[in-house]
Amino acid sequence: MCRWGWIFNMSLFITSLNSGSNGNCYYIGNDREAILVDAGISCRETEKRMQRLGLSMSSVKAIFVSHEHTDHIKGIPVIAKKYQLPVYITANTLSNGGMELDAQLVFSFQAYTPVTVGELNITAFPKFHDAIDPHSFIIESKGIRIGVFTDIGAPCERLIHHFQQCHAAFLESNYDEEMLENGSYPRHLKNRIRGGQGHLSNRQALELFQTHRPSFLTHLLLSHLSHNNNNPDLTRDLFAPHAGETKIVIASRHEETPVYFIESSESLGPVTFPVQAAAPSLPTRNTGTPATYSLQPNPTAAKPTRPKKPAPHSSQFSLF
Ligand SMILES: [Zn+2]
Ligand SMILES: [Zn+2]
Fold this sequence. Notes:
Layout: E1 12-18, E2 25-29, E3 34-37, H1 43-53, E4 60-64, H2 70-73, H3 76-83, E5 87-88, H4 91-97, E6 106-107, E7 115-117, E8 120-126, E9 135-141, E10 144-149, H5 157-163, E11 168-172, H6 177-182, H7 187-194, H8 202-212, E12 219-223, H9 232-239, E13 247-250, E14 260-262
Parallel strand pairs: 3-4, 4-5, 5-6, 10-11, 11-12, 12-13
Antiparallel strand pairs: 1-2, 1-14, 2-3, 7-8, 8-9, 9-10
This protein binds zinc ion (2 copies).
């Protein structure tokens, strides 16, 4: 249990332990249990940063993996083994990531089917990104919702739908369009980043925020800022005039953010999915299917079959 648990037992606690192409790890929990979305920094660094925040690894009950790029998975084998944490990962992501994990720690998830961890309900949905089977996550507990929306090539209707229901969100704001255009990256890399399967620009993130933020969005953690094509001050200045009642935080590539307590009088109930968000709008490279819009927990999550040979890792590396 974290040291603030007794004060805010109706709140969710969130922090970014690191955010950027050098490693991503997001903590979401209540006073009893927590999950990590991705574990892209070392186990030792994860422990150190959580300790500084007064958070205990004993409250972490599972890791959810968004996609196989190294900045999202490189800490997983060690931390999962050391703490015997279940790793929720799709079979394609596991096979493309080439991670060695104990079979008993590997669990699958399906888009739109919530996984229950204590009082946390974690629901994945597909996103546009240059990976084999990439997902965003919504974490819901007692009507409070947190979104983890990084590594997104373009805002789709699913992202908009879920962003509109968040009390707090980690939202990618990867690059300044001018800095990317005028920077030193080769043209093909620039085009990968901004080509719809790469990353969200500051402008795209701001547009989403301005157009679709709900009145109850208390915290926006701008995430995965590029080292070469962005600047934290520039991003902060861009969002500040539009912040209103929402606290804008820049999630650092070098250190943890403070822990934020997310609570609300606007309890929204279970996560829902718009029927119109079905197949036609799915990312073309995603192999999952949104066949069900179940609101039920998925206690019998099947273990994916481990491939005999890892697939090639050609898409394993993150854009910047
Ligand atoms: Zn990334
Ligand atoms: Zn990525």
